[in-house]
C-alpha cells in the first residue's frame, strides 16, 4: 500500500512490525498491505484491520474481533468515506454519540476508563484545533477507539477470556 499524502507507509501508521500476525478482514478489492496477512478471523493477531459498511454488522463483529486480539493488539476499523461513493451507515459523527448503546454499556461497566477517555478526547480535540487539524477525527481516533480497547481488555481480564 502506498504511503499516501503523508509520506508515512500505512503499515507503520497501523503499528505493523516485522513478525506481527495481521488479520485483514473484508478489505475492498485492490486493497493490500506490504506485510503478510491472514484474510479470515482465525487465531490471535497483533494487528487487525477490519472493513465495514454497516453499523449493525460492525456491532455484531466487535466481540469476535476482540477474541482474536493479542493482549497488546491494535484494532483498526475502516469504513468508506462519502467520496468513495459507497453506501454506508457508519459516520464519524455517529461514533461520538454518547448515547450509542455500546458507549452506554461502557459507561456502566467501566466508568473510570470511560471518563479518562472523555478527557483524552477533549485534549486531542483542543490540540487538533490549535494546529488546524480535523478535531472530529482527533476526538474519535484518540478516545473512542481507545475506550473500546481498554474496556474489552479489562472485561477479558475479569472473566479470564483471552488468557
Short structural description:
The protein is α/β, with parallel strands linked by helices.
Detailed description of the structure:
The protein has 163 residues and is α/β, with parallel strands linked by helices. Helices cover 47% and strands 14% of the residues. The protein contains 6 helices and 4 strands. It has a 4-stranded parallel β-sheet. β3 (45-51), α2 and β4 form a beta-alpha-beta unit. The termini are far apart.
Which helices and strands, and how do they pair?
Elements: H1 10-13, E1 22-25, E2 37-38, E3 45-51, H2 55-67, E4 69-78, H3 92-95, H4 101-109, H5 111-131, H6 135-159
Parallel strand pairs: 1-2, 1-3, 3-4
Helix pairs in contact: 4-5, 5-6
Give a quick account of the main beta sheet: strands, pairing sense, barrel closure. 4 strands, parallel
- Main structural class: alpha/beta
* Element pattern in H and E: HEEEHEHHHH
Strand percentage, roughly? 5-15%
What is the approximate shape?
globular
N-C termini distance: 33 Å
Amino acid at each position: 500500500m502506498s504511503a499516501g499524502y503523508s509520506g508515512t507507509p500505512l503499515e507503520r501508521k497501523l503499528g505493523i512490525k516485522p513478525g506481527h500476525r495481521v488479520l485483514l478482514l473484508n478489505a475492498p478489492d485492490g486493497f493490500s498491505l506490504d506485510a503478510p496477512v491472514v484474510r479470515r478471523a482465525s487465531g490471535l493477531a497483533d494487528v487487525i484491520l477490519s472493513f465495514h459498511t454497516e453499523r449493525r454488522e460492525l456491532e455484531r463483529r466487535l466481540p469476535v474481533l476482540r477474541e482474536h486480539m493479542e493482549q497488546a493488539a491494535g484494532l483498526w476499523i475502516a469504513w468508506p468515506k462519502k467520496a468513495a461513493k459507497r453506501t454506508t451507515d457508519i459516520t464519524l459523527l455517529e461514533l461520538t454519540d454518547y448515547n450509542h448503546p455500546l458507549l452506554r454499556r461502557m459507561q456502566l461497566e467501566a466508568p473510570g476508563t470511560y471518563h479518562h477517555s472523555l478527557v483524552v478526547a477533549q485534549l486531542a480535540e483542543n490540540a487538533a484545533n490549535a494546529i488546524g487539524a480535523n478535531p472530529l477525527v482527533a476526538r474519535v481516533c484518540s478516545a473512542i477507539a481507545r475506550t473500546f480497547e481498554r474496556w474489552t481488555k479489562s472485561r477479558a481480564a475479569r472473566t479470564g477470556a483471552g488468557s
